[in-house]
Structure formats: structure tokens, C-alpha cells
Amino acid sequence: MKTSVILSLICGLSVVFTTAWMPQPVDKTADRPPKTAPKVQRYLYVATPGVRNYLGYGGHGIQVFDIDNNHRFVKFIQTKGFQKNGKPSNVKGVDVSLATNCIYISTLEALQCIDMSTEKVLWEREYEGGVDRISISPDGKTIYMPSLEKEFWTVVDAKTGDVITKIVTNSGSHNTIYGPAGKYVYLAGLKSTMLNVADAKTHTIAKKVGPFSADIRPFTINGAETLVYVNVNGLLGFEVGDLVTGKFLHRVVVEGFNIGEVKRHSCPSHGIGMTPDEKEIWLCDGANNRVHVFDNTVMPPVQKTSILVRDMPGWITFSMDGKYAYPSSGDIIDVKTRKIVATLEDQHFNQVQSEKMVEIHFSGGKAVAAGDQFGIGQLKKAANQN
Fold first, then answer.
1. How far is the C-alpha of 136 from the C-alpha of 107, rounded, in Å?
2. 41-370 topology per CATH
């Protein structure tokens, strides 16, 4: 009896020790480094010919530049946009929809939709009255498309290009800004001193701002959509309007420079933008090849300094982080130091200039963020204005 008990105890201990020393499965994932998110790549997409139909400023297509590599040339994307005679048409505007993962280019006659991953043109459609500088809704679903200096804007579906409706203003439709909140769209005609404001839900004119002293050319707005800054014919400077009350507020004239003759646009100041932090207004001076900088923390804004660029500036916008200013001359200006830190050049080291450019961020081969072509302020709450 005792022997059997002892044997049972010995067997039991043997099982325990054997089990204790059995090799355990190895967790092969324990030592693996955590997965990191794909690196975000920041590119500047420059649509050409973006200065009239001049092919000498970048050819016909999209020139892509690496913002984080001193704005070096990355690649060239072929586009459509040809006239009936086979010659490239003027590029009039450029914008991005993250919802469709597409970049859109308007030309004199048509609108083309290009997939940003495959770089293929998905569709190109001509529209009644032609197409001027487009603007896309913040949700990426709707495009406001001005006819070419005619009586109306056409509202289209961003995915298909199908027409939703028309908005008749009889103002010489030209420049368009879809408000950051998605509630209003700002419609500037170059045959009117009034800025029309459309209700983005009903696609009808909700209010007007002005009158300004002359017909409106390029313009920009603050992020809270309370102020508008407009170029007008005959003025080396800009004017300010109240988007809430609809009233004209201020006229700001550039000091120390003569108006002079300009190469294009017949307008001394054609191009105005606001730094993303809304502290400064940057203004184009076509006669003197300058960009003038104004302090926008006071009202009216006060002139601070001027920057000489390599050719006539006819448009200006900013990088999304506010570090760089992008005049259409192709100069890359450090906003803080006011120094030109690079210039846009293609793969053959030719100058690239365009009034139609937009910043796009990619992650994992897909667009995840995009800037705007207008230099719109990015503060959603209105700052106190003196």
C-alpha cells in the first residue's frame, strides 16, 4: 500500500516538473516596432499654361513640386484642355476635392476632372458660356463654376460634372470663393462693383456687399467670413468690405510706388491673399514687380514692406502652414524673413509661372489634405478689429 502511494507521488511530481519545463510558444510580435502611419508628402501642384496661354512658363499640364525638398521638381502630369485648333487653352482655375480624390482644372471652354492617384483624366466637359475660376465646396461635392465673364454661374456635381442649376447675376462672372463654412459662396464679376453672395443650399443670391469704388477683380476673405478684401480696377491697393452688414469699409492705397503700366489684366493690383493666421495681407503690384505686405492686425491694414519678385505677379496664395508665399511669378518667399528661398523650375530648369496652383498632401498614395488657390484666412472666429 505504502509502495503504491509513493509511486503515485513520484509520478505526480514528474508530471508537474515536466509540464513546468515545457517550452512555451514565443510571441513573435512582442519585439516588433509599432506600425507607423505613412509619411505625409506635401506637394505644390501648378497648372499650366497658367499665365494666359503662354507655354514658355511651364508648358501644358501639371508641374508638381516637393515642398519639403526646397520645392524641387517631382513630375509632370499630362492633362487635356485643348482648343478646337489643337492648341492648349488658357487654364482659368484649379481646385481639389478630397471626397472624389480628384483635382479639377478649368479652361476657357471646359472643366476636366483628374484622379490624383492614377493621374488619369476621368472626364472633360464643355459648358455653356465657357468656364472661369472655379471653387469647390468644403465637403468636395459641389463646384461653383463661373461662365467666362458672362451673366451666370453654373453649379455642377463634382463627381459627374452634371449641371445642378444656374445662378444669374448679370455681373460678368469671374472669380469665385466657396466659404470655409460651406454656407455661402462669394461671386465676383468683373463688370460689377457689388460682390454677390450665394446661399449654398438654395443656390440663390442671399445678399450683396458694396458697392466698391470700381469693378471687382481678385479677392480674398477671412476664415470667419466677416471681411472681404478686394482688388478693383484702377487701384494700386485694395478695398475692404463687411460680409455681415454688406457695407464698404476701407480703401487702402499703396504708398511710395507709381501705378505704371502692367503686362496683363489691365489692373495695377491683380492678386491678393491673407496669411493663414490672418495677421498680414499680401498684395500684388503688376507695374513694379512687387509684393506689398500689410499689417492686418489693425483696421484698416497698414503697409509694412515690399518684396521684389522676378516677374509680374498676377496672383498670390500661401502654403497651408503659412511658411511660404506663392506669387504667380514662381518665386517662393519665406513669409517670416521676406526672403526668396527658391524659384519654381521644371525638369529642364526653365522658369515655371502660374496663377493657378494649389498645395496637396498625400498619405498612402491618396490625397488627405488640400490648400486653396485664393489665400483665404484660416481663423474660424472673428478677431477683434480696431
1. 16
2. Methylamine Dehydrogenase; Chain H (2.130.10)
